[in-house]
Amino acid sequence: MKKHQSSSSRLQISIDLAQHGRQIGDLKLKWSDNRQPIGYYPIPIICLSSGEGPTILLTGGVHGDEFEGPAALMRLVQSLSVEEINGRIIIIPALNAAAVFESSRVSPLDQLNLNRAFPGDADGSPTQMVAHFVETVLLPQCDAAIDLHAGGKASIFAPCVLAQVDPGSPQGKSNLALAKAFATPYLWVASEKNDNRSLNAAAARQQVSMIAAELGGGGNCDPAMTDFTEAAIRRCLSHLGITAPSNDDHVVDMECISVSETFASPASGLFDRGFNIADKVAAGQSAGWVHFVNEPERPSLELTFNTSGTILAHGNRGMVERGDLIAIIAGPCSVEGMK
Fold first, then answer.
1. Distance between CA atoms of 159 and 281, rounded to whole angstroms?
2. What is the pLDDT of residues 172-216, one digit of tens each?
3. Are 1 and 50 in contact (CB under 8 A)?
4. Which residues of 144-169 are buried (b: 16+ CB within 10 A; e: fewer)?
């Protein structure tokens, strides 16, 4: 296990992460406002620890309208026993807890997106304080991390894992191995342009092996996706040696992809979508129509794809505004070590 690094974080933790056993407590986010002038906003944290194996951080609810990850993590909290573990599992089902309780992508405390707040600020707003705690206190203690996402209310993703998988670095190799264990149909290869304000980037700075998963979306809790997520996490725990070898024989021929285009609506209206996630599309193909329901005399606008590829994600709104997501289109890329 990695040694604890000192930090100036204002967050307090009610459990001792160095202690063996099963502990459930809070990260105490002290933020004085009208709702909570003196107390704290709780972020529940669970630590399961036994033996001398590696440490993994499992997070969900970074965006508060993405629920499959938190549901799968809560299942693990209730089903995993300390006796099964050789190492340490730190679970935070709702890292952006205030947002999860509001079913909101951004925190209601400061209107910030947690996955665009790293490395954070110990003396900043609530979201910045949480990001700073994760990057300076939690990640330095970890060997691996998995961050669970979905498309939220606004979009739906094909099941995929996002990872930096440069085969020339030890971290890239371990990221790839972790992605293979998670076993989604797609491996979304993060480039050097990956947002440096994300939890992925924080893990890279701390040299912690990490993957982030995108698992459907729509702002609800898809049972098939939650089942898959729970099984995928268990495969990763087994891969790392934290739990016993798995009997799960789920293997996929992962397709490596990188984003070719993010296609946004050029107009406001009712979007009549003509495709689904994971569809193969071609440049010039119809993507659907924007109908102007308040101006019936105005001809509808047909949208066409500008590039060929696979639909990695699409928007989840019927009524769209100019600039809203229509689709994320990904193309194939090669990664050494995939076969």
1. 18
2. 899 999 999 999 999 999 876 678 899 999 999 999 999 999 999
3. no
4. bbbbbbbbbbbbbbbbbbbbbbbeee
CATH 2.40.50.100 in the chain is located at 259-332
Quick one: how far is CA 177 from the chain centroid?
A: 18
Query: What torsion, rounded to 10 degrees, do the Cα atoms 204, 205, 208, 213 define?
Result: -40
Q: Which CATH architecture does the domain made up of 259-332 adopt?
A: Beta Barrel (2.40)
φ, ψ at 139 (rounded to 5°): -60, -40
d(CA 124, CA 273): 41
pTM assigned to the model: 0.94
Write out the two tokens for 4.
């604890």
Nearest-angstrom CA–CA distance, 91 and 236? 14
In the block, tokens 């967050």 appear at 11
Q: Where along the chain do the CATH 3.40.630.10 domains lie?
A: 12-252
- Which residues is 87 bridged to in the sheet? 50
- Give tens-digit pLDDT for 96-149: 999 999 999 999 999 999 999 999 999 999 999 999 999 999 999 999 999 999
d(CA 224, CA 222): 6
> Tokens 């995939």 identify what position?
338
Answer yes or no: CATH 1.10.10.10 is held by domain 12-252.
no
CA distance 197 to 336: 27
